[in-house]
Amino acid sequence: MTETSAARSRSRRAGKGLKIERIYTTPGVHPYDEVTWEKRDVVQQNWKTQETIFEQRGVEFPDFWSVNASTIVTTKYFRGALGTDARETGLKQLVDRVVLTYVKAGKEHGYFATEDDAEIFEHELTYALIHQIFSFNSPVWFNVGTSSPQQVSACFILSVDDSMDSILNWYKEEGFIFKGGSGAGLNLSRIRSSKELLSSGGTASGPVSFMRGADASAGTIKSGGATRRAAKMVVLDVDHPDIEEFIETKAREEDKIRALRDAGFDMDLGGADIVSVQYQNANNSVRVSDEFMRAVEEGEEFGLRSRKDGSVIETVDARELFNKMAKAAWECADPGIQYDDTINDWHTNPETGRITASNPCSEYLSLDNSSCNLASLNLLKFLREDNTFDVQKYQAVAELVITAMDISICFADFPTEPIGETTRNFRQLGIGYANLGALLMATGRGYDSEGGRALAASLTSLLTGAAYKRSAEMAGVVGAYNGYARNADAHKRVMRKHQAANDEIRSLHAMDSEIHKAATKAWDSVVKVGEKNGYRNAQASVLAPTGTIGFMMDCDTTGIEPDFSLVKFKKLVGGGSMQIVNQTIPRALKMLGYAEETIEAIVEHIADKGHVIDAPGLKTEHYEIFDTAMGERAIKPMGHVRMMAAVQPFLSGAISKTVNLPEEATVEEIAEVYMEGWKLGLKALAAYRDNCKVGQPLSDGGSTAKDKSAAAAEAKVEKIVEYRPVRKRLPKRRASQTTSFSVGGAEGYLTAGTYDDETLGEIFLKFGKQGSTLAGVMDAFSIAVSIGLQYGVPLETFVEKFTNLRFEPAGLTDDPDVRMSQSIMDYVFRRLALDYLDFETRDYMGIHSAEERARELETGSYLAGSGSSDSDDESVEDELESYSQSVATTTKKEKADKPEVVDAVDVEAPAAREVSTGVHSSAELMEKFQGKSADAPMCMTCGTKMQRAGSCYVCEGCGSTSGCS
């Protein structure tokens, strides 16, 4: 794919250069001089093996960077051998290595009007990076400014034809890309099916058989020489004669995994025996046409076509084939779906070739043998203290970043020459954003709401509009991309489609309206300036997973995703960790008009329960604002689809996102998601039903598959032998204690009887001065609870169900351990919990005695003797003590004086709790709240539970990803 030499010479023509405006910086002041720097020790362990996997002491970072961010950047991005002078020792060296390379290339290729513009570009880029306003994708940090090849792209699309030379070349090219730590995708539809003949007269092998060889290669090479799996995407057109075999390939392998697991083999991802299973290193997607989807709607026949001459060699029932796709996705999460006609209708370069495939995460869709470098803006950085959005700076940063991204193509290296040639000719870029979920919550908008979608659409429209505006301006300085002349009409048509989609946005709030006005103005400039200059870039925007770089920017949410959970696991400076309620929640509640006392109570409730249901004082109409990706109020599947549909018309590429469905979801629900995705104009979509995959390792404490299989067998035997629960009656003479109490002025008596081992076996409730009806009801209730206890219902189950019930009488009690109660039931079961449950169980439920609460204020811990003299522990103690003196939040002065406090406890003190030693990530914390395991893989580097980021998984502990981000 070679463009004309005339186009190349046009790109070299002299121009005036770009005028770079200041956004954040001050003339004469370097951004580093405006930041307080501190040195930290980065020590990383695998919590399972207790092995130290990384250690670098004295690394330098801004004081406002979290421990997680500095750890991930140090371990992932610092270059040079550990223990040598060549090793980078701070963020300044890393940022200088990258930024100065971009500035040098920008000067050499005529991007800047003057030396002053080059300096402003350097300072603004540096400021934005050290203040976590945006980040480049990981390959930039790995490679730019080093002696390694200057690879800047994370996303690649390959090409394979119907010949053995091409197929073997596919294996080789994928291997080099995996070795470099990136991922690739390709479409196998040109390969003849197993139902067609070879020229020799024999039958062709078909693409699925060649997938087996590529899968084995990927499993051997892995990614970047690491232990995680390679990232790859395999696409097959829906009219390929082998489409049914392709659809069912991974579902059949999942059956094999189950059978081997039940036989005692270790079939976890990364397990010793999983290598015997095929096709596990790729995401599979079916490329469907509008013709096929209409046939599904109408229940018509659909033709499967020969790869050689395009003739129909077999007809199938379209609806039946579509349902097979949904059934396979229900069974194993593959295949996903890509909507071919929609993708190519938004294609800016159709004269050069069709878009047939995507990268592994499905956000980059472009020509074969091409690549895309990505960067993402941190949306929350543009929300001012007064909850208004800084539209001007958002647009200015987008234009700054897209300029830097284009400059990188001037010096970048590529894994193959065809990829390099296509990228230099079309200069595809992928600007996007992270923290959308946090921004929506902070501004009081539900993720699945019209207001949330209107804001997201406006933000995305302005982002892409600003990027193409700057692209058109760069074309006037350094020339349009080489392939533009041939595709000019198509490119301009797509720009008008984006502009028309922008006109369809209906703003619901002042913030949306302001952003939308800026977007409208930007698109007017795009069309006007582009008509004159053309465009520097064939593509401008995608929404990537932002896994590792999301943690680098200290984002609460990745990409387009909603918040993962309301309570987060947070590491502290100097070691240790705490359970912290998402900092966005108090901000959102304050913006909604709640009083400080109510906010504290709601935050306390969230810290105890992990959700907002029945939070004291919270209006039910505000619940949706705090809906999350998982948990008690998980966003419905179609809520995710509708959000994707709201932003898709404003993206050059697509969206890396998986629509999560609960375990009880049906095949029909997945089919509905796939059908609605087509109707709503999405380009690509994947669905994942919880616990559908066996090969996803859960936190099993290191037990082997054989142990688990044996345990499962024992459980089955036990279930047969003990078909019914057995009542364990109390002895005739048993110990008991009676507690008198008063709740809201109503007096009563609680008598609790125990077994010989002092576990609770019965309760009696009596109330003075009450009518006979209430006395009878309470007697019946006492008997019911007592029988439940004797049949083995755990006391903690009753405590979970009956605490926080609200009805009269309620209010003050005469019990120093339970000072306030929302009802008699709330008091009774809190008292029982204090008397009969162990500390760990009560701590999880947020139930503590007066002595424990006092100890927590004194030492920073509810446990006796767990205080520490470390400066970081003292900082936590100071923060908790300040809360006891009615200081609700850390002031700006305190943050400046005690940066470690900001990192340890940056929200109201009730939101900060010590976490048990068995919790090592937010995903594991959510498991604790939910009482069930999350269906996500374990990080093979540090052993913690990963969490979803787009269509990949990312480790909160070390930043490792399961995909190409």
Number of helices: 32
Percent range for β-strand residues = 5-15%
Oligomeric composition of the shown chains: single chain
User: Percentage of helical residues?
Assistant: 40-55%
Terminal CA distance: 27 Å
The structural class is alpha/beta
Radius of gyration: 30 Å
Mind describing the biggest β-sheet? 10 strands, mixed
Mean pLDDT: 85
Low-confidence blocks of residues: 4-14, 223-228, 696-723, 865-909
- Report the principal-axis shape: globular
**Strand tally:** 26
Element layout with pairings:
Layout: H1 5-11, E1 37-46, E2 51-62, H2 67-77, H3 91-108, H4 115-130, E3 134-136, H5 138-143, E4 155-157, H6 164-179, E5 183-187, H7 207-221, E6 232-237, H8 243-262, E7 283-288, H9 290-298, E8 301-305, E9 312-317, H10 318-332, E10 336-339, H11 340-345, E11 357-358, E12 365-366, E13 370-378, H12 391-411, H13 417-426, E14 429-434, H14 436-442, H15 450-478, H16 484-503, H17 510-533, H18 547-552, E15 567-571, E16 577-581, H19 584-591, H20 596-609, H21 637-647, E17 658-661, H22 667-679, E18 684-689, H23 705-721, E19 736-743, E20 746-754, E21 760-767, H24 772-790, H25 795-802, E22 811-815, E23 818-821, H26 824-836, H27 839-845, H28 850-859, H29 871-884, H30 892-897, H31 899-904, E24 912-914, H32 922-930, E25 947-949, E26 952-954
Parallel strand pairs: 4-5, 5-6, 6-7, 7-10, 13-14, 17-18
Antiparallel strand pairs: 1-2, 3-13, 4-13, 8-9, 10-18, 11-12, 15-16, 16-24, 19-20, 20-21, 22-23, 25-26
